[in-house]
Specification:
six-stranded mixed beta sheet; 9 helices; 32% helix; Rossmann fold; alpha/beta; four-stranded antiparallel beta sheet
C-alpha cells in the first residue's frame, strides 16, 4: 500500500494513454507530483520517456488530461503556459559542437522568449554559474567532457527558473565523481520546484528523491516514498551459500554469499531489503522480466 503526496500537487495527470501502432506506450497513467524530486524508475520500454515527452507537451496524448502548475495544455494558451513553466533535459541533448557553452544556453534562452539581450545574458551567466561552469562558458562544447556537457544541458533547462523540471536519464554515462556532482545539482534544483527524474539508477532515487514512481508496460505499478518501496521487499530477501533455485533473482555478493530475492524458504537467513529489491519485486509483480 502506498501513500499520497502530503504537499499540494503541482502536476497532475488522469488517465493518460498513448499508442504507437499496436503498442500502448502509456496505458491509463494517473499521478500527482508535488514540490521536490520524484524519481521515475522502470525497465527499457516501460513508457518513461513517453510520459516525460507528454508532460513536456512534446507529443500529445491520445487520451486523458494533465495540468502543470495550473496550466491545461488542452488549449493553445495552456500549452504556452506549460512550456513557459518548464525546464526539459532530454536523454540525448542536441548540441551544436561549435557553439560555446554560453552560446548554446543563450540560444535556448532565445527560444524561451528572453528577448532583452542584456537581461538574457545575465540569466545565462547565472545558470552557468549555478552548475559550476562559469570558468568554461567560452569553451566550445566539443571540447567539454561528458559531465560538463550534461551540466550545460542542465543549465539550459534551468533558464528562466522553471517551476517544473523534467530530467530524462541525466546521469547516464557519467563516472562516479561526475554522478555525485550531478546529484548535488539535482538536489539543489529540487528546492522550491517540482522535479521529475527518470533514471535506471536506483541509487540516484535512494539518495535524491522524496517520492518514487515505478512504470512497466506503459502503466504505473507503484507510487510512494522510497522507504515504502524498500518496505515492499521486507521478509523477501535472504542470504545463502548458493543461489536459491526458487529465487526470482540472486547473485553472489562481494562477501562471497548469495543474496536472493523472492519468496524465501522456511528457515532462510533473512536480510535487510534495499530499494533495488523492492523495485525488482514490483517489476516481477507487474509481469516484467527480472534478470538473475
Amino acid at each position: 500500500m502506498t501513500s499520497a503526496p502530503t504537499d499540494p500537487a503541482t502536476v497532475t495527470a488522469e488517465g493518460l494513454g498513448l499508442s504507437y501502432g499496436g503498442t500502448r506506450a502509456l496505458d491509463d497513467v494517473s499521478l500527482r507530483l508535488a514540490r521536490g524530486v520524484t524519481g521515475l524508475l522502470g525497465p527499457n520500454g516501460a513508457g518513461k520517456t513517453t510520459l516525460l515527452r507528454v508532460l513536456a507537451t512534446a507529443v500529445p496524448a491520445d487520451r486523458g488530461t494533465f495540468q502543470v502548475l495550473g496550466h491545461d495544455p488542452g488549449t493553445a494558451r495552456g500549452r504556452q503556459g506549460v512550456r513557459r513553466a518548464l525546464g526539459y533535459l532530454p536523454q540525448t541533448p542536441g548540441f551544436h559542437p561549435d557553439f560555446t557553452a554560453f552560446e548554446f544556453v543563450d540560444y535556448v534562452a532565445i527560444l524561451k522568449e528572453h528577448t532583452d539581450r542584456a537581461e538574457r545574458h545575465r540569466e545565462v551567466r547565472r545558470v552557468l554559474a549555478g552548475v559550476d561552469l562559469a570558468d568554461v562558458r567560452g569553451r566550445r562544447i566539443r571540447k567539454l567532457s561528458g559531465g560538463m556537457r550534461q551540466r550545460v544541458a542542465l543549465a539550459a533547462a534551468l533558464v528562466g527558473d522553471p517551476g517544473f523540471l523534467v530530467l530524462d536519464e541525466p546521469t547516464v554515462g557519467l563516472d562516479p565523481e561526475q554522478r555525485m556532482r550531478f546529484r548535488e545539482l539535482i538536489a539543489t534544483a529540487g528546492e522550491g520546484r517540482t522535479v521529475l527524474l527518470s533514471t535506471h539508477q536506483t541509487e540516484d532515487v535512494a539518495m535524491l528523491c522524496h517520492r518514487v514512481v515505478v512504470m512497466a508496460g506503459g502503466r504505473i505499478r507503484f507510487e510512494g516514498t522510497p522507504a515504502e518501496l524498500t518496505a515492499a521487499a521486507a521478509g523477501r530477501v535472504w542470504n545463502s551459500d548458493g543461489r536459491d533455485p526458487g529465487a526470482k533473482a540472486g547473485w553472489r555478493t562481494g562477501a562471497g554469499v548469495f543474496r536472493n530475492v523472492g519468496d524465501p524458504p522456511a528457515g532462510a537467513e533473512l536480510t535487510e531489503p534495499t530499494l533495488e529489491d523492492g523495485y525488482l519485486l514490483t517489476l516481477d509483480g507487474a509481469g516484467a522480466e527480472v534478470a538473475a
